[in-house]
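hey so i finally got around to running the thing on that chain from the lab meeting. sorry it took forever, my laptop kept dying and i had to restart like 3 times. anyway pasting the input first so we r on the same page abt which one it is
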Amino acid sequence: MKPVIAIYPGSFDPLTNGHLDLIQRGAKIFDELVVAILRNSDKVPLFTVDERLEMLRENCSQWSNVRVESFSGLLVDYAHERNAQAVLRGIRAVSDYEYELQMAWMNRKLDSGLETVFMMPAGAYSYLSSRLAREIASLGGPLTGLVPPSVEVRLRERLGVKATAGK
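ok and heres what got predicted. didnt touch it at all, straight out
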């Protein structure tokens, strides 16, 4: 039987515990999960692609069937290069669903053999996004439970902001 390979694409800027929740659960479902950072020249990320690759690899090393890479261009082309049959996407709210559904339909139009699997995060992460983690970090707020400890260290160093007292 052919192994089922899925791609979990994203910016992961920074990696959050919500991302890790989906990676852990996706690793149980698929034979191989490729966590893929999209190289998007239209966005100005906080961390370089190499830094994000390093953070992901460090935090995904416990799953032997998870591979971390980066790509540019169309997701369907990248999926074809990796022999992937599925795309894993997280859905936190209705607004995510509307955007993700549109992307899934377009991917299906471009490659009818590529399936999209939507997964809801654990309830503890249903509100969490990289953007919110960056904002909380920039204001010195607590990040415990939102991002892995190693990511928190990098975030605070990059932003030059220490956690406020009592947090």
